[in-house]
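Re: weekly structure request thread

Next one in the queue (268 aa):
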Amino acid sequence: MVDKSEKFSWFVRLGYMARGLTYMLLGYLALETGSGEASEGSTGVFDMLQEVPLGTPLLWVIAIGMLGYAAYKYLSGFANIYNRNDDIEGGLKRIGDVASGVAHTFLAFAAYQFATGTKSSGGDGTQERASTVLSYDLGGVVLGVIGLGFLVGGLMQAKKAYDLGFMKRISGRAPHWVCHIGRAGHAARAVVFAIIGWSLMQGAWFSSSSQVKGLGEAIVSLRDMGVVYTLVAVGLIMFGLFSFITSRYRVIPHLTSGSMKPDVPGRH
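Done, posted below.
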């Protein structure tokens, strides 16, 4: 009989697959359409899936998978299932995990809307959500904290791209070349996260949702940088491929038997 921990592990692995498919298609849109559908970010991806055979089932898979991945990130941030140290670095990693959980919750909801047909086109809604947050008391603080989470996430992605830290929780059975596509993918993601985080900080500082950029807008903001734009788009495809492959090889904590040990060096 499959225990709850193993079911959760399958749920998380589905999340990695959903994330991988989304990023691969997003990078493809950025290369193929330039500032067109790519500007809509994940919404452009989901809109495209509506038009292909079996697109609706795929959207349901992405919605469920993204929800599982978000839950995983919330547990990592709030419950500290990886037993991160109670220092600045550990705290920043947990903030980054929570920010990732928030982002993937929105992605899950967007995929659900497209799967049910309640949304068929339009922007990714980032500025609308930011405007809603800013309308509340302390909304600017909340937006700023989320922005800080993305900035921290960007720094962590860059660090992982440099020292291959993302391989710490990848099984030694994974293909040896996965580290190379992972490095390219994390570097591209670091750039995108930094742009999103900075835009959120600006939106919080100026109390203006017009400053805020979503995933697609962050990518398109690089379109005038020529080769950088192309490299980031290709890098996002690589990150998607990395996510898809490592959905099989990711080491996930057993929730019923305690948390994992603190970070330790892994196979590079």
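The chain has nine helices and no strands. Residues 4-33 form the longest helix (30 residues).
Next request, please.
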